Amino acid sequence: MKILVRLKAYGLHFDIWALCLFFLIMIPNCIWFAVPAPCDVLRGDSVTGTLDTIASVCQVVMIAALCLLQNRECKKRHKNTWFTPCILLVIICSLFYMISWIVYYAGIVNVDVILGLTVFPCLAFLFFGLNRENWIACVPIIIFTVCHILYGIVNFIL
Known about the structure:
Structural class: mainly alpha
Number of helices: 7
Low-confidence stretches: none
Largest sheet: 2 strands, antiparallel
Strand order of the largest sheet: 1-2
Order of helices and strands: HEHHEHHHH
Distance between the termini: 45 Å
Helix content: over 70%
Shape: globular
């Protein structure tokens, strides 16, 4: 019964900042699709097909939930504040993600870089969802994070 009451706290509302975060995270991916890196191990075939499919579905659901669902109770509580510790963590994770891409394009491919490319974007989305108290979005974000990290580890680290 409590879950149904909490679901009623959500409404449809377009969050432009969620879409901006998604585009920010996707910029290096678009560059990578167009311009291969010098030591481009990421272009290899994946051995985690089912996991990749689950991750892709969760990615679409998480972006849709972040962009379209709003916890009205959170909006009321945080009416006058936009810069929070979670937003600071979103910015930090996004910066480390961009740095990981720069290092990758510099030809350095190691465990730290692979984990930087897999963990930091997931954490950026998770902290954004936590900041918005969008618990519905946090579920696919967590599933996507687990799948994305496993993809990176199995395909490029082990």
